[in-house]
Amino acid sequence: xxxxxxxxxxxxxxxxxxxxxxxxxxxxxxxxxxxxxxxxxxxxxxxxxxxxxxxxxxxxxxxxxxxxxxxxxxxxxxxxxxxxxxxxxxxxxxxxxxxxxxxxxxxxxxxxxxxxxxxxxxxxxxxxxxxxxxxxxxxxxxxxxxxxxxxxxxxxxxxxxxxxxxxxxxxxxxxxxxxxxxxxxxxxxxxxxxxxxxxxxxxxxxxxxxxxxxxxxxxxxxxxxxxxxxxxxxxxxxxxxxxxxxxxxxxxxxxxxxxxxxxxxxxxxxxxxxxxxxxxxxxxxxxxxxxxxxxxxxxxxxxxxxxxxxxxxxxxxxxxxxxxxxxxxxxxxxxxxxxxxxxxxxxxxxxxxxxxxxxxxxxxxxxxxxxxxxxxxxxxxxxxxxxxxxxxxxxxx
Length: 397
Prior knowledge:
Elements: H1 2-13, E1 21-22, E2 34-43, H2 45-53, E3 66-76, E4 82-92, E5 98-105, H3 124-133, E6 137-141, H4 158-178, E7 182-192, H5 194-208, E8 215-222, H6 228-238, H7 243-257, H8 279-282, H9 289-295, H10 300-303, H11 306-313, H12 317-326, E9 338-342, H13 352-363, E10 368-372, H14 378-394
Helix pairs in contact: 2-3, 4-5
């Protein structure tokens, strides 16, 4: 283990040497145990400023250079069985020994490699760097089945979003210790789209005491699908969710949820020909997101059977169970103020989701507001909100 300490310290001092540091599996049996560290990118102050200036997030909050690493760690799957997952940790290149901590949870990704720890062109990487360059130890889990983790991604499954994120925080804490650093136990949580919903359930877990070494410090999710039954699924039919987005999300969610909730026995029960014979392969993580989108038809009625669309209007059985597995992110009382960022021109995750979450949180007695970022589309809400959230998190240090 002493060798590991020296190796990781050397990585921080000379992170341009892109070699992985591996922890012997036999020495680390616990959930959250760190298995390997791979340096991903090292950026000087000028380098990160240039990178973020060329991104939609801007460089206004750059105060530090950034060291980024991919961590692999132990976690559990949806049935509680041991598995592994990966994620990105981005650290400022200087600062205090105890670094303020941000958890950033990413949005919907189909392609296995389309995550910040693997893909340098992924938009979630500059989002994480925006926080790291502002001085935060930024922890960005890939979730199960994405990045270098095995198996399929259980899309929008609240339970595994929570467990993978908590275990990523544990792994990041161990890694920081090897660099003679510490993570502030008060975690400021944000996330976009799927990660907005994931941010809420992670916040609930930390507040409930899932790990005594962490607590909830702040909560500011962006454009999350917090209300699948009350906003997102109805939006498919009332026009608030665009047809292209509806097909992408509903097909991905249906195929992913069918692995754990019985929605169909044969894809032909849900998908029309010729898609029924190809859809599961298309959505197994081996295909890039843009290729998936281009492979789907123009109309819902060309992709889904009439019988399935009727079921989506009135969910029951396994379909209803799947919706419940995604819902419930806002049925608790955070002890910190909550800011729900959303945009009025979002036709992927309509602002009705944030409004529903606000109602549920207020019913529980929480202090919550919806921050309307204006007529922004789905990705535009993140580009606008992330810099504002840096400012908000700075105020709670």
